[in-house]
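Subject: design request, 225 residues
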């Protein structure tokens, strides 16, 4: 893993860990919480390689977002990345629901992304080598990428980066953080039934019990008759 990969991972990981409970649910807006699927019907999963169509993205768009988010949070042996955590699935479901007001931003942003990639490297973003993708992302992040009108290059980058963080670290019920990959990365224990006094006083990451999320908690609640 390159130093650039490490710095991006460190930024996203540090932002989530520094925010404490944000790694659990607070990153997700209330609107998404209201629209979440029931525990009996877990979120639809789409192919992380962009081979199929999702709830909102078409195949080409899903491939571009999958590649973009993976470069923001690249995976490595023993270190889950955006693809491992299902970030694409999270963003896709969010845009089909609570984030539907951002659909046009993504449509235009992705079109501009591919246009700039073709101009710079004669290929759409998803087909570029990782180093080339990094160059494209760097230009977008700094606002130097040409051809971006609306959204601006920086606005598009900041939106995708924010949603990448949400997909990595929000509760798995929203479609990302697959197998608690993001929570395990930052040592967030999820929802636990109870903690002992010693555990509450400890400064070490809690690993004494399996992590659980909103879906598991909902399943444990007694049903009203």
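Subject: RE: design request

Done. Sequence follows.
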């Amino acid at each position: 893993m390159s130093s650039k990969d490490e710095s991006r991972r460190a930024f996203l990981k540090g932002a989530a860990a520094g925010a404490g409970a944000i790694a659990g649910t607070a990153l997700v807006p209330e609107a998404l919480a209201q629209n979440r699927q029931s525990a009996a019907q877990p979120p639809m999963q789409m192919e992380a390689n962009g081979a199929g169509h999702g709830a909102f993205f078409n195949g080409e768009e899903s491939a571009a977002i999958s590649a973009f988010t993976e470069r923001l949070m690249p995976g490595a042996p023993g270190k889950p990345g955006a693809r491992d955590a299902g970030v694409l699935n999270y963003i896709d479901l969010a845009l089909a629901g609570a984030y539907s007001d951002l659909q046009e931003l993504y449509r235009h942003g992705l079109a501009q992304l591919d246009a700039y990639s073709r101009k710079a490297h004669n290929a759409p973003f998803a087909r570029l080598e990782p180093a080339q993708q990094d160059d494209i992302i760097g230009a977008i992040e700094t606002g130097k990428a040409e051809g971006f009108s609306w959204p601006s290059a920086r606005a598009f980058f900041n939106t995708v980066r924010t949603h990448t963080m949400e997909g990595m670290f929000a509760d798995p019920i929203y479609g990302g953080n697959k197998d608690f990959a993001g929570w395990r990365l930052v040592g967030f224990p999820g929802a636990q039934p109870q903690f002992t006094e010693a555990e509450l006083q400890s400064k070490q990451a809690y690993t004494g019990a399996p992590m659980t999320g909103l879906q598991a908690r909902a399943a444990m609640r007694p049903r009203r008759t």
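Residues 3-220 form one domain.
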